[in-house]
């Protein structure tokens, strides 16, 4: 059993929406933490059909329960009409709900009841390093951190099924587009641009669709929690800065599989891209789990100087390199950033196991960086 950092016990006195991509472990986590809760699984086709035909059935089942009773509804976006009954049970009977789902898009798109602030959103991410005893960096870089994928010795078949069933079917269904082939092509091109600056025009040309359609497709990936855009740091002092965001799939293993990558070898460009993605993935989860007000951005000038991650208002700048020996050329971006933001803490995260500070730049081995991050020391 793995202890997840998303500790729902701390927020169990209220109602929440628990969102997370498929197979990140939402149902498992809820059953572990709340074994005595009333559990309604809308992935059960019989339960779903009855609730769809007669949403008031939920009210009839629960309205006589004791105040404070906890009810978990798994995959609430499958029957969003139940939210009216949930609202009534919270407001009039004091019941508490955990409403679980892999996408908020269905709720947003159709304007369904979002409970008027009576439940707030919480997100569950794939595994993070702190949750895994004997965490293996090379396994994570190659296969990602979705729990069933990380734990398998050879997850290729599992990843293939995940992408075929989830990305290619459920996400297409969410897209509401007539030309599903163009959306499939977009998924592939999005993988090619994973970790890169988004150029809507270039992607549109590759897919044979308009730039506005490409933008809407990225919205779909974000709303369904399959990917996220990391914005550019825009507070410039001297240098002109790139303004477009970067895109990352929510898990590096998914991106690798879409790109037909197998087990990645250190020293290859593919390993380097995936290594950077994994560190970004960890940073995003950390900022959300700790409810930080700091935003994650990246910094890039029009002359090509770059820093992979900036936390907050230039509080911390992080360069990510999958090298086992950091050289002066790997520090150019951090040095340029430090010239403009003198008070910034500058870190290079790498596979170099000799931690040290040189010219104000901290060199931290990736596993030590993850430990310091979750200890609140970054």
Would you give an account of this structure?
This protein is of the alpha/beta class and 378 residues long. The protein has helices spanning 26-33, 45-53, 56-62, 82-93, 105-109, 137-143, 147-151, 156-175, 180-192, 200-207, 211-223, 252-258, 269-289, 332-340, 366-374; strands at residues 15-19, 38-41, 70-74, 96-101, 119-123, 227-230, 246-249, 296-300, 306-311, 316-320, 345-350, 356-358, 361-365. Strands 8-9-10-11-13-12 form a 6-stranded mixed β-sheet, sandwiched between helices. Strands 2-3-4-1-5 form a 5-stranded parallel β-sheet, with helices on both faces. Strands 6-7 form a two-stranded antiparallel ribbon. The chain starts with 14 loop residues before the first strand and ends with a helix. The mean pLDDT is 89.
Question: What structural class should be given to the helix and strand makeup?
Answer: alpha/beta
The amount of beta strand, in percent, is 15-25%
Radius of gyration: 22 Å
Low-pLDDT residue intervals, each spanning 5 or more residues: none
How many strands, which pairing sense, and closed or not: the largest β-sheet? Answer: 6 strands, mixed
Helix content bin: 40-55%
Mean pLDDT: 89
What is the overall shape? globular
User: What is the CA–CA distance across the termini?
Assistant: 28 Å
- Main β-sheet, spatial strand arrangement: 8-9-10-11-13-12
Order of helices and strands: EHEHHEHEHEHHHHHHEEHHEEEHEEEH
Tell me how many strands there are. 13
Given the structure, what is the number of helices? 15
